[in-house]
Amino acid sequence: MKKRIAVLVIEDKIGNYFLEELKYIFENTVEVDYFTPNMINKPFIYETDLILYTDPSILIEMIEYIKCSAPILMMKRTISKQSVEKLRKIDSDKSAYIVNINSFMANETLATLYSLGIKNMKLLPYYEGASNIKNVDYIITPNEFECMPNIDAEVINIGNRVFDLSTVLDIIAYLNIEKKLSEKIIKKYSLKVPTFWKGLNSTLYDKKMLAGQLDVVLNEFDNGIILCDEKGLILLSNNKASQILNISKEYIEQDYLKNLLERDTILNVLLKKDEIHDEIIDFSNKKLIVTMKKVIYDEVYFGKLIILKYYSELLINQQKLHDKLVGKGYYSKYSFDSIKGSHPKLMDAINISKKIAHSSSTVLLLGESGTGKELFAGAIHNFSDRKNRPFIAINCATLPENLLESELFGYEEGAFTGARKGGKMGVFEKANHGTLFLDEIGEIPLNLQARLLRALQENEIMKIGGDSIINVDVRIIAASNKDLFEMVEQGTFRNDLFYRLNVFQVNLPPLREHKSDIEYLINYFLDIFGDRRSIDYSFFKFCQDYNWHGNVRELKNTIEYMLKVSNDSLKVENLPNYFKKKESLSYNTFEDIEKIVLGIIESRAKKGLGTGRRSIYEEFCKTYYKISEKEIRIIIKRLEDNGNIVVSVGRKGCQISK
């Protein structure tokens, strides 16, 4: 059955327009009637699903004729994208009357234009009965020709104002339009109009993209994923969850979890209020590992995330995970020549590493993320007597405890359910007579630390499920970006393991402590990427002022980003957005900001553009960081007082003085 809409308008012409427009938007799935105050024998409105009105005066006149409890919605209206583009092309410093049939509609149209970014001219409202008529350059009207002022001005007809997209969304919600048609309407209509709702077009596009990307990402997981809201309604799931539960995805989503679980009571564990971590249950003759986490933000509970995985598949995929997580194979491509820089602190670290390379004792590399710990580990190995033996790197933070233990020590066939035939060799065995690099050593759980300590002390291991000792000759290089000594004091890292690892300690300096290497590193990365660019002074100054929390890795990523997003020289304008804040750019003095403002004026002058205070403010905020218009006014005044610029009234604005 079609939904019904009643539209309250001032005259028949507008009523017919909205009648056709609504039928077009909703593809004749709605019935539309319009009502005006001057109708002969005004009909009462008894049955309708939604009432729309154009302005408050119409609703006040018609309210006594509304005899139903349907929701009442005032339309938000806008103009077409074509009309917006036409108005944006008008030269600055012009003026225009915005004409409409009454004060409310004239002012509403004016506000609409300002909201859509029409700021290149002064806009004035005009309606029947308006006084103090002024001479203006343009008359802008949405087909309201009868009440236009009698002055010599160019008329721009922007056509009937159309529904703003936010109003279309409201109508969809009130009428409960089905999902597929809603998406089709929004997609089609968002191409037609700009919107009051700032950024909505972008938001809708981003949401559609995000939904598609999320669907792809969820289905990339080997685990079943289910996301519920705070009431237990299932919002999202993936194909793996459908396979495990043997229920179609369309029946899982938009149903309640408790209804889903009626099929198999063993899954009632998912209704628990507490979180679940890797609980194993028997489900459909297979062992299923269940994890359930609460989704909490700002101490508000929004629902829960459920992760389902087959125990057997976890073990079958273990070898595939091993190839990706154990580093880059059984060798390292790094040498001490791979470490770029000449600062004394960096050279000290290199020299110490060379001296200790030939020893078989444990090395502990300490440094922040991005300082090159794996690079140093590989260089030490390749400088040592073990260089022709295996080098294996494993990141202790990337594996859960049960997998990490089997990765380190291996397991025997039949050690646990799903253990593969023939068992598995651990990295201690694989690195025998070579070097084992344990990155993020501080992430190893306490109970596993004891087993690692024994392996280091005795040079022997025992596989999970095994009963025989395996002797190993492995040189350990460990690394951490955490303060292990502090962890020892807090009881989260074993004292005896720390001192066992800390035979030779090498401290890798953060980039902020060897900034003299930055220029060399930038040029080195430009060579690596095969894209030589000039380096603007503003960017070089930024590099020297910024603290580089991500160290050399962050610098490399920044260079790569700038090369990809722009063909210009390396300059502050092309930095990733997260850098563009006052504390990062360190332009805090008036002298710094004066230079930037002069640069903006000069750059715009070369392009033949006038430069007023507003354009300086907008370009400064876009290129550098958020600054107040008051600060810009002060800077302009200082530059003018010092004779650096000439400030003219009108389009020219500010100009560099002779």
Automatic annotation (TrEMBL):
The answer to keyword Nucleotide-binding applying to this record is yes
Q: What is the species of this protein?
A: Sedimentibacter acidaminivorans
Q: Where is the Sigma-54 factor interaction domain?
A: 339-564
Under which name does UniProt file this protein?
Transcriptional regulator with PAS, ATPase and Fis domain
InterPro entries associated with the record: AAA+_ATPase (IPR003593), AAA_lid_NorR (IPR058031), P-loop_NTPase (IPR027417), Sigma_54_int (IPR002078), Sigma_54_int_dom_ATP-bd_1 (IPR025662)
* PANTHER family listed in its UniProt record: C4-DICARBOXYLATE TRANSPORT TRANSCRIPTIONAL REGULATORY PROTEIN DCTD, TRANSCRIPTIONAL REGULATORY PROTEIN
**Which UniProt keywords are given for this protein, alphabetically ordered?**
ATP-binding, Nucleotide-binding
Check the record and name the Pfam families matching this protein. Answer: AAA_lid_14, Sigma54_activat
* Gene3D superfamilies linked to this entry: 1.10.8.60, P-loop containing nucleotide triphosphate hydrolases, PAS domain
Q: Would I find Nucleotide-binding among this entry's keywords?
A: yes
